[in-house]
Specification:
The complex is a heterotetramer, with 2 copies of chain A and 2 copies of chain B.
Chain A (H helix, E strand, L loop, with lengths): L1 E4 H15 L3 E5 L15 H5 L4 E3 L4 H13 L3 E5 L10 H8 L2 H4 L8 E6 L14 H5 L5 E3 L4 H13 L4 E6 L7 E4 L13 E4 L4 E5 L3 H16 L3 E5 L2 E3 L3 H11 L2 E8 L4 H13 L8 E5 L8 H7 L3 H13 L1
Parallel strand pairs in A: 2-3, 2-4, 4-5, 5-7, 6-7, 10-11, 10-13, 13-14
Antiparallel strand pairs in A: 1-8, 6-12, 9-11
Helix pairs in contact in A: 1-7, 3-4, 8-12, 9-10
Chain B lengths: L17 H26 L14 H9 L8 E3 L5 H6 L4 H8 L33 H14 L6 E6 L6 H12 L4 E7 L2 E2 L2 E2 H4 L8 H5 L2 E6 L3 H16 L5 E6 L17 H8 L3 H11 L5 H23 L31
Parallel strand pairs in B: 1-2, 2-3, 3-7, 6-7
Antiparallel strand pairs in B: 4-5
The chains are: A alpha/beta, B alpha/beta.
The complex binds thiamine diphosphate (2 copies) and magnesium ion (2 copies).
Chain lengths: 327, 349, 327, 349
């Protein structure tokens, strides 16, 4: 067991898959000699050569489109977006071409991964902090993965690469070097897509969340236990598409009070979908309205006091939880 | 130049056998006649959705596709007006009819329309509607050829209008930098829907765009099937031998409206008349006969064969059912599980 | 009063605004000599000249970006998308540049309208039938308008053009020539953005919906009245962003049983957001779970039996309503 | 050529007054010194977020912006490395410092970072991060000039890397077709982040792209401020007189990393040394003196003035507060109503 960061875990996962399967190759901006803006692919060019580590022009649509073409031919492309904010530039290619290929074109396979940094809390301003999962949730054919821990980051990137379908892999940049965990060196970690993880057991209420917000939820849960004697369950969804309805049902039926927390803006955010599913499937189990804690409905501002105000904080989770518990 | 079998006959272009010369005619005629039959079916409301013609552009589609090597696994991505290219690669009239008539047995099982279908084995990858998208995708297809050191070539078609898209630009540039074995056929047919070339671009010839990407550029008479074949074949050879991308501009003309509903009110009449006189099928037929490459009888036989094949296909297709409603489900993901969003459908009441 | 179609109503609205305000101009593909793919702008080029009716290259990003630039300078651009499916090609420009301009850039005004056909039921296949409101709902700074009637189509396009912010105006192509209404010739119709319309009064339950689905809802309501003696209210949201929470609250509190119906796919669709809002604000008023009727989670297929199966039909609304009423 | 005031002096470029020649130096020096001060503040962690330098590129930014006419309402859209262009248009060091330090009084009230801010009155429109986007937007700005028959010109900056984006392509083509009064400055500084030019494009000179759009193209030494001024001025004149778009490629070099955190390990050392010897400020200063256009004392005075202005601005800025948290709300829509999504914030507990 050695301590590795969330970033190193992703690096290892990529490396292992490239060693295991020669069909896997990488493409993206500045991923070769430079090793990527966050150095996730440092050393890959040297090890795997420039046929398998391809520095591209600044062309997100071409990156995603070319990955699709190569995937059709049996390769396993892994695209890096320098920041996921720029995946918006490939929105049409991704949602119209890639996501529909299998369905519309007689089973045309398009196994590819698009990975890169998401998220705020880093003073990145409106265009280097986005948490864009909601923009892609409503596209059948895509899978969306948002790991919170180093173990999951490694296990899920490996599963994403082996998956037969296009996967968006959202790495939280705040966690890159802040999360450190001991990972086994011998055991191969493969975390299945589509399965949530119970990050903390509890009985009084649950917080359903994912990505960096998992840590805020755990912090809030501890504080609530300490200060209020509340037993709070934390469910880390890990994969948003497909969504683990069974795990959601389980925690809702067990705790009867639900808080959904996400970093993205409230209106149109993923919490809406989850609320609707809970409502449809577990209405009778709800002892209180499902509450959402999310970013305020503004573009994410840059200055620290503004960013801190707009993004949900642990204190917001604590406040909303108390409201729920008292309901 | 290959040795000339009969002294009196001009030589065929390099690489083209006498059978090939006949095949070119056959595919052009098949395209023309199949579309004519589709117009009929459209008027009988048996075609679902719009109908897009390639009348007058058959040489450009057929001649360019014919320059690929079907024994080497070359792949092309056609546009809506490249029915001819699809046929050359082995798509059948029955498949096309089934697509247009939304039949259960159609290659996409009724999910997609017209010639939006694919078979990578036969070497065609169907387009989606979003113009320009196939350029990056074919860059990726040909990237796989290079990564695997396969001597295969890709070909992608783009309309004059589609050259304005960001996707075209990004794909062209990507392929150029990577020196991929890709032939880009720019079909300059004068219009994008109702928009004439000069409102689409400030260049007078689209081949001028090649210089901006640092790739080879050539232009040819798109209504001369042999000229199309020759320039494309050179581009295919360049691609296969590591010379990278060629942009081939084919000058042709869209003689019908954008689709059958469009009456072309925006088109000057003389312009249409002029291009009617430049029909690629007529021209090639005359040339075949004049050069002694085919006899009138051989041509008649090809025409007959085409009509018969279409008639058989129509008969088969018409009797077939549309897909079952429930077949709309499935196939969004490779391994639908209980977690798949497809599964999350109408709740039990 | 003369009978006009939904399409003609939009045409009139555009025409009146162009006559009223010389800052208004149109840009889009084939909108000039051809009058637009659906002929909404037929005759405009002749009347207003080619400085105000601009045929563009096939460049959705340039259309939206150029509209933004012109809007900054005080003009009032109205962009046509030939099909709204192609707005996806301008997704980044729209969500990153246009929507954020006022907020991030010290109040930079960007008043523009992007209008064009949406929706299915027309055998258009996966790329000419999209109902993409959910893709834009989660972008603060945008407004989203989805008229169902000819009167609203006219009144809302006029208000959209006069609005100080970017507005997406989704015209349902199935309604273009199928809806016909008598509109007053003298009175100027101006329908405020952000206000829902009660399309039918009822007391037993409500259907919240918009665009073409309003007609399915009305049909279902009539059938339910006739066959089941149920009194069903139909709320036509008309504007999705900003959403008329007050009107939603009113109908929920009055009827206590809620069905949300939309044409878009279920997962990630707008119904999730509405469900969450209802849950947050009217939980105690709910006598049954909020139900969603939506398209199945697949790309919209082409063949009539498939399209009919995937898209929600009146019968689906009737069935879900009966379930709700019986709950 | 304007008459030469002193017989012994070479003439200044057309349109440039002696004061203008000094102003060019002033703005270049101001850019350099302001950035140097920002590096200091960055090391003291007083700058929030990244810091992007234009070291070695000051001539390209200043010389091109100076070619606009500030009395006629010309507008430019700069890039991250065009601090100099912003200063020429009237942005102040204090505004820039406030932006970098996320102060309440910054032009964007702390909402956006670095030089992403705008003032259409003074004639600059701040970029967003998404590369290429400002080209379509400036096409729209200049379209408004044409529609209103205003004799104004727009200028937009694009890096070598950003020419690969679909947005650049669509905007260029749109402006070219509409013959808009737009000058497109392509800053070829050799790299896009770590990516060298040959991995970004297969052309060796970006000016080659002009031909693909049917617009005028010129190239100049981007480290020679007078050469930059001259070619840009001609392009501005062409635009103003109805001649349409010009693509101006300026050859320069990014002497620092992409941002302060980047140690440029991917750059050959000789390359950097070579370009250090080609410093645009040194070159221009020497030329000013050698040609008798300025005395050493005058230059010293300008240097002093720059330092003093920066010192004053830093002092003011440092003492200022960051914005109040609640000021994050508001301004998403023009008329926030009870229906605005902003209003729909944290529910009352
Ligand atoms: C991105 C995008 N925008 C708009 C359309 C609508 N559209 C379909 S075909 C067409 C014209 C295409 O013209 P061109 O590329 O010249 O091909 P041609 O029809 O002449 O073969 C347009 C605008 C589209 N399919 N995709
Ligand atoms: C669409 C998009 N993709 C990626 C990025 C990330 N990015 C920021 S700057 C940069 C390099 C820009 O290079 P260039 O255009 O040459 O400008 P320079 O930095 O050299 O001035 C990249 C890739 C971005 N901002 N926008
Ligand atoms: Mg065309
Ligand atoms: Mg550069």
């Amino acid at each position: 067991m050695t301590e590795v960061t969330y970033l190193e875990a992703i690096r290892q996962g990529l490396w292992e898959e490239m060693e295991r399967d020669e069909r896997v190759f990488l493409l993206g901006e500045d991923i070769g000699a430079y090793g990527g803006a966050f150095k996730v692919t440092e050393g890959f060019l040297k090890q795997f050569g420039d046929d398998r580590v391809i520095d591209t022009p600044i062309s997100e649509t071409a990156i995603v489109g070319a990955a699709a073409g190569a995937a059709h031919m049996g390769l396993r492309p892994v695209c890096e977006m320098q920041f996921m904010d720029f995946l918006s530039c490939a929105y049409s290619m991704l949602t119209n071409y890639v996501a529909t290929a299998r369905y519309r074109a007689g089973g045309l396979p398009t196994p590819l991964v698009i990975r890169g940094p998401v998220g705020g809390y880093v003073r990145g301003g409106p265009f280097h902090s986005q948490m864009p999962e909601a923009a892609y949730l409503h596209t059948p054919g895509l899978k969306i993965v948002c790991p919170a821990t180093a173990r999951d980051a490694k296990g899920l990137i490996k599963s994403a690469i082996r998956d037969e379908d296009p996967v968006l892999f959202f790495e939280h940049k705040y966690l890159y070097r802040r999360v450190r965990e001991s990972l086994p060196e011998q055991e191969e970690i493969l975390t299945p897509l589509g399965e949530a993880r119970c990050a903390r057991e509890g009985t009084d209420m649950c917080i359903i969340t994912w990505s960096a917000m998992v840590f805020h939820a755990l912090e809030a849960a501890e504080q609530l236990e300490r200060e209020d004697g509340l037993s709070v369950e934390v469910l880390d969804l890990r994969t948003l598409l497909p969504m683990d309805d069974a795990a959601i049902d389980r925690t809702v039926k067990k705790t009867n009070r639900v808080l959904i927390a996400h970093e993205d803006t409230r209106t149109g955010g993923v919490a809406g979908e989850i609320t609707a599913r809970i409502n449809e499937r577990c209405f009778e189990y709800l002892d209180a309205p499902v509450r959402r804690v999310a970013a305020l409905d503004v573009p994410l501002p840059f200055a620290p006091p503004l960013e801190d105000y707009v993004l949900p904080q642990t204190a917001d989770l604590v406040r909303a939880s108390r409201w729920l518990a008292a309901y | 130049m290959r040795p000339n079998p009969e002294e009196s006959q001009p030589a065929l272009p390099a690489g083209l056998s006498p059978e090939g010369a006949h095949a070119l005619y056959y595919f052009m005629r098949l395209t023309r006649s199949l579309e004519e039959r589709l117009v009929n079916l459209y008027r009988q409301t048996k075609v679902i959705g719009g109908l897009f013609r390639s009348l007058g552009q058959e040489a450009d589609a057929v001649g360019s596709a014919f320059a690929l090597d079907r024994t080497k696994g070359d792949i092309l991505a056609p546009l809506i007006r490249n029915l001819g290219s699809m046929l050359v690669q082995g798509a059948t009239p029955l498949e096309v009819l089934r697509q247009y008539m939304a039949k259960a047995e159609s290659p996409t099982r009724g999910r997609e329309l017209n010639i939006h279908f694919n078979d990578l084995e036969r070497g065609f990858l169907g387009q989606i509607s979003h113009l320009g998208d196939m350029v990056p995708v074919m860059a990726g297809v040909t990237l796989s050829f290079r990564i695997r050191r396969e001597p295969r070539v890709g070909m992608v078609y783009v309309g004059d209008g589609a050259t304005s898209t960001g996707a075209f630009h990004e794909g062209m540039n990507f392929a150029a930098v990577q020196k991929l074995p890709l032939v880009v056929i720019v079909e300059n047919n004068g219009y994008a829907y109702s928009t004439p070339l000069y409102r689409q671009t400030a260049v007078s010839a689209l081949v001028a765009k090649a210089a901006g990407y640092g790739v080879a550029g050539v232009q040819a008479d798109g209504n001369d099937v042999l000229a199309v074949y020759e320039v494309t074949r050179a581009a295919v050879e360049r691609a296969r031998s590591g010379g990278g991308v060629t942009l081939v501009e084919l000058l042709t003309y869209r003689r019908t409206g954008h689709a059958e509903h469009d009456n072309q009110s925006y088109v000057p009449k003389e312009e249409r008349t002029r291009w009617e006189a430049n029909d690629p099928l007529d021209r090639y037929r005359d040339r075949l006969v004049a050069n002694g490459w085919a006899t009138e009888q051989q041509i008649q036989a090809l025409d007959d064969r085409v009509l018969e094949e279409i008639a058989t296909a129509v008969a088969t297709c018409e009797s077939e059912p549309m897909p079952e409603a429930e077949s709309a489900l499935g196939g969004v993901y490779a391994n639908p599980s209980r977690l798949s969003p497809e599964w999350y459908r109408i709740l039990d009441d």
